[in-house]
What we know:
Elements: E1 4-8, E2 15-19, E3 24-26, E4 33-35, E5 40-45, H1 48-74
Antiparallel strand pairs: 1-2, 1-5, 3-4
Amino acid sequence: MPNYAVVACGKCGGYLLAKTDQKTRTCPYCGSKILLEKAKKVAFAKTANEASLLLRRIKEKNQKLMFEGYFEESH
């Protein structure tokens, strides 16, 4: 059973880590309270290290997609 989840904030779309047994988290980007039971879970991991790596990869992929979209629109 996974111990950690990568969760997307419903208000700002930011990604954060949460333990799967937690009820709520505060988004570090916009400050909104996230009810983890209802939150969009993007990935799961067994260890904190694995979860951290997943979160980093998701953020990098998101940044790359945003950059490519910006570049295509600008040029």
